[in-house]
Amino acid sequence: MKANKSSTFTYIVLSFIAPIIFAWVMSQTHWGQNPTSTSNKGLLVNSKEPWQIYNDAKKSSKWRVVVFSDNTHCQERLHHADASIILLRDDAKRVQLLTGDNCKITTQTPLNHDPSLSQLIQQAPKHFNISDSSEITMMIIDPLGYAVTLYTSSHPDQALMKDLKTLLKYSRIG
After folding, report:
1. Which of 16, 64, 148, 158 has the lowest tally of Cβ within 10 angstroms?
2. Side by side, which strands form the sheet with 95-99?
3. pLDDT of the residue at 68
4. How many helices (H) and strands (E) does the chain have?
5. Percent of the chain with pLDDT strictly greater than 90
6. φ, ψ for residue 45 (rounded to 5)?
C-alpha cells in the first residue's frame, strides 16, 4: 500500500513539473518554433516601433485598405482591392477603401482619396523590412490608425483577402 501511495504522488508531481520543464526546454532551444509558419500573408509592421498613420482626429471605426499605384497599375490594383473587400461578404462593411493617388475608377466599395498618404509611404522602409517604398502596392490600417500589414508586387493576389479575413475574424474593433 505504501509503494502505491508514493507512485501516485510521483505521477501527480510529474504531471505538474514535466510540462514546465518541457516548455522551458522548448523556449531555450526554439524547438518546435518555425518563424516562417505564420498566418499573415503580407509584411507585418515592426512591433518595436508602431507606425501610426492617423492621429486621434482621423481615427475611423473601420479598417482601411490603402492602395498605392503608379498610373500604369492604378485600375488593376484598385480592382483587386475592391474584389478582396467584396469577397468578405458581411465583414465588407467594416472595411474602407482608400487611395493616396488621384486614380479614378468606379468601385463597388466606396473609394476615398487621401493625398497625405502618398507622402507618408516614404517612411515605410523604416517600419517594414523593405528596401524601397516604390515596391509598396497596398497597406492595411487598423481602426485606431496604425499600419498593420504591407503588400508589395511580389505578394500573391489572395494575400490581402486572407489577411483581412483573419484580422476581421479576431478583431473586436472596427
Report:
1. 16
2. 43-44, 147-152, 136-141, 63-67, 95-99, 111-113
3. 83
4. 5, 6
5. 18
6. -65, 150
Residue 11's identity, in one-letter code, is Y
C-alpha cell read off for 47: 512591433
Paired strand residues for 141? 64, 147
- Give the single-character DSSP code of 109: S
Residues 10/11/15/21 CA torsion (nearest 10 deg): 50
Q: What is the DSSP string of 96-153?
A: EEEESS------SS-EEE-THHHHHGGGHHHHSS-S-GGGEEEEEE-TTSBEEEEEET
Question: What CATH number did the domain enclosing 64 receive?
Answer: 3.40.30.10
Assess contact for 92 and 110: CB atoms under 8 A: no
CA distance 123 to 119: 8
Mean pLDDT of 59-75: 81
Q: How far is the C-alpha of 141 from the C-alpha of 100, rounded, in Å?
A: 13
The C-alpha cell that represents 26 in the structure block:
522548448
**Residue numbers of the domain that contains 26:** 1-37
Q: Is 97 helix (H, G, I), strand (E, B) or coil?
A: strand
What is residue 154's predicted lDDT score, i.e. its pLDDT? 86
Quote the pLDDT of residue 155. Answer: 87
